[in-house]
Design goal:
The protein has 186 residues and is mainly α. The protein has helices at residues 3-40, 47-62, 98-110, 115-146, 148-185, and strands at residues 67-71, 78-82, 86-91. The chain has a domain at 3-42 and 97-185.
Length: 186
């Protein structure tokens, strides 16, 4: 096969692989999004929001703060308070990290490698993002307590950028280390 023809076949395969990844990404994202939306409509805070609030509350306890958490009046969020009813943070659906986890899962599962490798990295990246999000909310609470003037910037700009940057970094690691051999050999 002449070199030009060979390069066209390789280029065509790469386009086919990339198109497949993008299509699978949107399908996985839609499926996970719809499942999560269905679970969110059940009324009370969902399991993930409860888990995040419990984890953040635990971090405060480990740091020596006396805190407690309770479901807020809206019935969908959980507030974390310090003794004396001083509000520290409020964990709502948008703060529980699921949007980033769903995005990450959709990407990881759409890359054409062995399912075992996909599922292992999906679990790993979900746990890393979940733990990073706990730390994010914990630090936001500390900023609110000690440097409240910085809270809005940290909450709306700094920490969302950092959690999405973490997801992108995990994707690069996944494609570069875990998936590159298999994608190239397909």
């Amino acid at each position: 096969m002449p070199q030009d023809e060979y390069e066209n076949v390789i280029k065509g395969d790469k386009i086919k692989i990339a198109t497949g990844i993008v299509l699978k990404f949107f399908i996985f994202y839609l499926i996970f999004f719809l499942i999560y939306e269905f679970l969110m409509k059940q009324g009370s805070p969902d399991f993930i929001t409860k888990s995040v609030a419990a984890g953040v509350d635990l971090l405060y306890h480990w740091s020596g703060y006396e805190t407690y958490s309770q479901v807020m009046e809206d019935g969908r969020s959980i507030g974390i308070f310090m003794s004396g009813n001083r509000w520290v943070v409020k964990v709502v659906e948008g703060c529980n990290g699921m949007s980033v986890i769903i995005l990450s899962l959709a990407f990881v599962l759409s890359v054409p490698v062995r399912w075992r490798r996909r599922l292992a990295f999906a679990l790993f990246s979900s746990v890393v993002i979940f733990l990073a999000n706990l730390l994010r909310i914990y630090i936001l609470g500390l900023i609110y307590i000690s440097h409240s003037g910085w809270f809005d910037f940290a909450h709306r700009v700094l920490f969302p950028a950092s959690i999405y940057a973490l997801a992108v970094l995990l994707w690069f690691v996944y494609v570069r280390k875990a998936a590159s051999d298999e994608i190239v050999n397909k």
